[in-house]
Amino acid sequence: MIKIEANWIDLRYLDTLAMKSTPVHRLNPIVKLIATLVFIITVTSFPKYEISGLLPFFLFPAVLVSLGGLPLLPLCKRLLLVAPFIIFIGIFNPLLDHTPVSKLGSFVLTGGWLSFASITIRLYLTVTAALILVATTGMNALGLALARIGIPRIIVVQILFMYRYLHVLLEEFVRSIQAYSLRSLHGDGIRFQAWGSLLGQLLLRSIDRANRIYQSMLCRGFDGEVRLMHSSPLHAADILYLAFWIVFCLSARSFNIPQLLGKLLMGV
After folding, report:
1. Contact by Cβ (8 Å): 27, 141
2. pLDDT value at residue 147
3. Which DSSP string corresponds to 106-120?
4. Cα gap 35→29, rounded to integer Å
5. What element of type H or E holds 104?
6. Cα 104 to chain center, whole Å?
7. pTM
8. Residue 65 in contact with residue 125, Cβ under 8 Å?
9. For residue range 230-239, what is the model confidence (pLDDT) as tens digits?
10. What is the C-alpha separation between 41 and 251, in angstroms, rounded?
């Protein structure tokens, strides 16, 4: 029997977290967006075999979760949702890359496993940073920040709609699975042969639901533009926050901090 907890995938919970009033929440949305983009770009720029150099970057989500008062367990649950995609992206590396990198006794560590671990760490860091950005900023404020840094408004509108109504699709998916499970005579979950018709029904129900939502928006005066609130002015704390993370990311990218600390402790 397949059971899916709707609260695991309820993205509206991130909007609830964004309503808090902490030092991180009060920062300018544009500053938080730029700092997160710098972090993501820096993390993804590492070579495919790099692992130790990525370790200092765990400081970024750790600090923001602590200062932002974010609950760790709900964020970890949402990270589990992307785990299959992360594994799928890198799982073929060990099969394709057999280059020996290290040897411990009879065990040989190949480049494929090393690159798989590196990809997994980088993807988890970037997804966590994106979740924290939404949870400490809110999607409306984030949309305004995207528009202010030059992202075309039509793309911003599409991102906002996709975020707002993604949970509608997920709820339809959960209801479809629950309905199938309740009507199943076998009680062993969804059979492989039924997935095609199930996804087809989900597509038809999603299109019908989207049409109803769009007609409701037109009746309420929607003209293709989403009105967003005005951005808050920059303060000294915003500049310090951005400067600190830029310096940190550039320093951690330029120098392998764990190796430097190891050499310092070993007296090399």
Report:
1. no
2. 84
3. TEEEEHHHHHHHHHH
4. 10
5. strand 100-104
6. 35
7. 0.79
8. no
9. 667 788 999 9
10. 14
SS (H, E, C) 208-268: HHHHHHHHHHHHCCCCCCCCCCCCCCCCHHHHHHHHHHHHHHHHHHHCCHHHHHHHHHHCC
pLDDT digits (tens, 9 = 90+) for 138-158: 888 888 888 888 888 888 888
Confidence of residue 33 (pLDDT cuts 50, 70, 90): very high
- Which contiguous run of DSSP H or E holds residue 187? none
Residues 6+ apart with CB under 8 A from 167: 9, 10, 11, 12
- The Cα 9–Cα 74 span in angstroms is 10
Q: In whole angstroms, what is the distance from residue 178 CA to residue 1 CA?
A: 9
Assign residue 109 a region (left: φ > 0; alpha: ψ between -120 and 50; beta: otherwise): beta
Q: Bin 5: left if φ > 0, else alpha if -120 < ψ < 50, else beta.
A: beta
Are residues 122 and 54 in contact, defined by beta-carbon separation less than 8 angstroms? yes
What separation in angstroms does the CA of 243 have from each of 125, 231, 236? 20, 20, 11
pLDDT at 213 over 70: yes
Distances 155 to 146, 147, 152, 162 between C-alpha atoms, Å: 9, 9, 5, 10
In the chain, count H helices and then E strands.
11, 2
Separation CA 53–CA 45 (nearest Å): 11
